[in-house]
Amino acid sequence: MKNTFTKHAGKGMWFFLIAAGFLLAFAASIVFGQTPITVEQAVNAFVSYDENSTEHIVVRSDRLPRAVIASVIGASLAVAGTFMQALTQNPMASPSIFGINQGAIFSVVIGVVLFSVSSLAALTGLAFLGAAAAAVIVYFLGSLGRDGLTPVKIVLAGAAISALFQSYTQGILVLDEAGLQDVLFWLAGSVSGRTLDMLLPVLPFIGTALVGAMFMGKAVNLLVTGEDIAKGMGQHVAALKALMGIIVVLLAGSSVAVVGAVGFIGLVIPHVARFFAGSDYRWVIPYAAMLGAVLLVSADVLARLLIMPQEVPIGVMTAMVGGPFFVYIARKGVSQV
């Protein structure tokens, strides 16, 4: 009993420290950028807003929205990756690696370029549809053959579908170069220029998916021990897998609809979360959400500071971390999920 209490206390302490790091990253996102803003000015922008103050306008109209959006999307992508790795028993699973992000982007491009769709609600629906289609196709292809679903086959299927959707997207844009400007918003993968109005339509989906995920830790623990054991413990494995898949689609589709394709968060963060929290998904899932928010907010701050006054695309910043990490996982053959 004492050892259990000590273990939970240790995990709680790490979570508290990570949460403190998130608050620091969020504050840095409000203060740092092309327009210098002091901490006092940032605080006054909320407690005594002056519409004639450039600094206050920047804080309220630009810095706060992108910090909030980066936090929510970072958490969403991290939890989506955590569920994908548990669902497929594959340490390299993530929305970007398995083509889910690319499927969502492809649907958005078709809607914008071919059908002149401009409504955010419609584009969100298209992103969900593309993400779901990619997930189903990858899962089906990875399950073909005598051995059924295996980590190697699903990685190959994900890489193939990702490349396929990417080539289709490029082909459409080549045929209609005028439409390129309309979809750069999503292709770039950035929180720059995003407003809270863009987040609000998908917030119910993200909120429902994240809250639901937080209560599924015990069920996921049973699933990763093996389907036979889970069934023996009374787990409805098919229903659980379907629910986890729906959550992944909601989180990944919503993320693409708001910020475009931001990769590698769903790959890296689940491993970092398990490093701190162990194998208990009752801890891993909230750890992943918090760490994902920290990573994307921090990446956004660095993206605007590195080559100021220009900004590095935030996808480049996450790739700088995720690319080497992907190679490390592939070489080491990490199997614990």
TrEMBL record:
Single GO BP term: siderophore-iron import into cell
Transmembrane helix among keywords: yes
Main localization of the protein described in the UniProt heading: membrane
One Gene Ontology term of the molecular function aspect: transmembrane transporter activity
Membrane-topology annotation of the record: Multi-pass membrane protein
Listed Pfam families: FecCD
This protein's record includes keyword Electron transport: no
The entry's keywords: Cell membrane, Membrane, Transmembrane, Transmembrane helix, Transport
Transmembrane segments: 67-87, 99-117, 123-142, 154-175, 202-224, 245-272, 284-307, 314-331
Subcellular location: Cell membrane
GO CC annotation, single: plasma membrane
Family: Belongs to the binding-protein-dependent transport system permease family. FecCD subfamily.
Name of the molecule in the record: Iron ABC transporter permease
Organism of this sequence: Salibacterium salarium
